[in-house]
Specification:
Blueprint (H helix, E strand, L loop, with lengths): L5 E9 L5 H11 L3 E13 L2 E7 L2 H14 L4 E4 L5 H12 L5 E3 L17 H8 L5 E2 L3 H8 L6 H12 L5 E6 L8 E7 L4 E7 L9 H14 L4 H17 L15 H4 L1
Parallel strand pairs: 1-2, 1-4, 4-5, 5-6, 6-7
Antiparallel strand pairs: 2-3, 7-8, 8-9
Helix pairs in contact: 1-7, 2-3, 3-4, 7-8
Length: 266
């Protein structure tokens, strides 16, 4: 029997199912890869916000990772919520010994504005995690958190990408979904410092966008697991997440999730 490509997510849980590990695994399934998981934290979370966070011990994270990679193997890894310096350092060490492309989503805050990364962990992200990344995928708030660059234009996105690349990832994907200068257009930039690709898609008037960043990063990882080069993987991921945002639906009393199964329902 043919087996699908193997993709591992190292991230926190979202009990509401819109982001985190749950979003990653749904995305991987939708894109034809076998998703595996290393849980870093448990959150009590719903459409209104994050009501509690419980970080797992570093030894539990290490044991999960080794159990999967040493037995099953992996063709791409995606990291998400790593809430403390200890977890960032632990995961960076594990990635250093893994011969697979890595997508680092430097999760800093939730869709509702809840902090998901301790300030004390920022130096570890910059100095230990980002150098392991094939692609780093910060949104505009995370760019500012990591580099101090405030993005208000496409030129700022270039400056932000250069600043992120300065920490060592091979490629930077600057997610411009929150950039309002383009009105009805959502603009992203992916670059390795030598070549750049601008990705443009309609900005849908839909408030139900919970999980967008996790979904995009895990879609990029799915493409890399299938053997795509970075620009092609990012382009395919952008197309997928654009459709998922357009089909996002109400859930609970707050912000609902994007629809990871939108292609099946289309």
């Amino acid at each position: 029997m043919n087996r699908p490509p193997l993709c591992l997510t190292v991230a926190g849980s979202d009990s509401g199912g819109g982001a985190g590990i749950q979003a990653d695994l749904k995305t991987m399934l939708a894109l034809g890869v076998h998703g595996m998981s290393v849980l870093t934290a448990v959150t009590a979370q719903n459409s209104l916000g994050v009501h509690g966070v419980w970080e797992l011990p570093a030894e539990a994270v290490r044991a999960q990772y080794r159990a999967v990679v040493d037995d099953i193997g992996v063709q791409a890894v995606k990291t998400g919520m790593l809430s403390s310096a200890v977890l960032v350092e632990t995961v960076a060490e594990l990635l250093a010994g893994t011969a697979a492309p890595v997508v680092v989503d430097p999760v800093g805050v939730s869709k509702h504005g809840d902090a998901l990364l301790a300030a004390s962990a920022l130096d570890a992200v910059r100095g230990e995690l980002l150098p392991r990344a094939t692609v780093a995928t910060p949104n505009l708030d995370e760019v500012t958190q990591l580099t101090g660059v405030v993005v208000e234009s496409e030129d700022d996105m270039r400056r932000a990408a250069d600043a992120v690349l300065g920490y060592g990832p091979r490629w930077a994907l600057i997610k411009g979904g929150h950039l309002t200068a383009h009105g009805d257009e959502a603009v992203d930039l992916v670059t390795d410092g030598a070549e750049e690709h601008w990705l443009r898609a309609p900005r849908y008037d839909n408030r139900h966008t919970h999980g967008t960043g996790c979904t995009l990063a895990s879609a990029v990882a799915a493409g890399l697991a299938q053997g795509l080069e970075v620009p092609a993987a990012v382009k395919a991921a952008k197309e997928y997440v654009t459709g998922a945002i357009a089909a996002g639906f109400a859930l609970g009393a707050g912000i609902g999730p994007v629809d990871h199964a939108w292609r099946r329902r289309a």
